[in-house]
Design brief:
about 220 residues, mainly alpha, Endonuclease Iii, domain 2, Endonuclease III, domain 1, about 0% strand, elongated, Alkylbase_DNA_Glycosylase/TA, DNA-3-methyladenine glycosylase activity, DNA-7-methylguanine glycosylase activity, DNA repair, alkylated DNA binding
Length: about 220
């Protein structure tokens, strides 16, 4: 009897990655040193828009391990993780999964935005980064940093510079300023050489601090 092989979902990788690496190696001395250290590793996206944003809300102000534990419990509640299904959940069940009152409110607001068509999800592909950020920050619990992570990790936009990200500033400090404190202005000056591939350079700066890639 033939066995059926389980087909895993294909993780997408950015079409621009190879071109971006060539550009960065040519334009930036630090990138020239960093990029070869990580071989073929690159940014990958997983899941859908709603799941990605829901995970980011669950993970706020929590350690990676704690956030994963709560997410695993929460993900068991609906038959499938969709906005419509989350809106059917009981608050008590969500709280029992380990979610705070505030995070329950945020997840419900996120689900409402997806379910009632407030978000132009199908139009995002053709929208400018700032227009997408403006839509996302209107959702409770989503700030600019979360929106920028969504642009990088889900929509795989090539030129996002998340200046509110502590890891980016720390990595720039370590790699470009011998550990001295770095301002947002300093970071912008460094990143001038990265454009139009700031997302890719940011990913490599993160890797210089932690070799294990992060996925959202």
């Amino acid at each position: 009897m033939a066995t059926t092989k389980k087909v895993l979902p294909v993780q997408q990788t950015p079409y621009f990655w190879e071109e971006a690496c060539k550009h960065l190696v040519k334009k930036d001395r630090v990138m020239k040193r960093l990029i070869p250290q990580f071989g073929d590793a690159c940014l990958q996206t997983r899941g859908d828009a709603f799941v990605t944003l829901a995970r980011s809300i669950v993970g706020q102000q929590s350690s990676v391990k704690a956030a994963q534990t709560v997410w695993d419990r929460f993900a068991l509640l609906p038959k499938r993780m969709t906005a419509a299904n989350v809106l059917k959940l009981k608050v008590d069940d969500m709280r029992a999964a380990g979610l705070s009152v505030r995070k329950v409110e945020y997840l419900v607001d996120l689900a409402l935005h997806f379910d009632n068509g407030t978000l132009h999800v199908k139009a995002w592909e053709g929208m400018a980064d700032e227009d997408i950020i403006a839509e996302l920050v209107a959702i409770r619990g989503i700030g600019r940093w979360t929106a920028e992570m969504f642009l990088i990790f889900h929509l795989m936009r090539p030129n996002v510079l998340p200046l509110d990200d502590e890891g980016l500033l720390s990595g720039i400090s370590h790699n470009y300023f011998s550990g001295d404190v770095v301002s947002r202005s300093d970071a912008r000056e460094v990143a001038a050489a990265w454009a139009p591939y700031c997302s890719v350079a940011t990913w490599y700066i993160w890797r210089s601090l932690d070799p294990l890639p992060v996925a959202y």
